[in-house]
Amino acid sequence: MSSATLVTSGVVLLTVVGIAYGGTFLLRVVNGAFPANELQRSYFRAGHAHAGVLVILGLVVRLLLDQPTVPDWGRLLGDLVLLAAILMPAGFFLSVVGRNPSTPNRWRLLIPVGATSLVIGLVAAGVALILGGLTAV
Question: What residue intervals traverse the membrane (predicted)?
């Protein structure tokens, strides 16, 4: 594994601590210690869940793609999974900021942008792994 991959993967892994801390915020919201309406509670839950799952998925994809027979473009596009781990949760959280919003604001557009990033990253990673595996045979 390259030193750049090791360093960035370490940084990404440390973000899980931030996600865990976000879980304490979510508990305060659910317990009523932080005022939030139902829309905000739903979006906060979705943002927290997406952050946790997508960061771990992004790290797994990164590890899988770190093989010498995997094309370089696969590694590059595979990192779109980690970009999705930023964009989608940000869309969920930022689109419901404020006092008692009744609908999500324009930041909600980050959610489908992140979903597109996720799909492209996963498809590219899958194809790159298949090609890398066929090359190794």
Answer: 6-30, 42-65, 77-97, 109-134
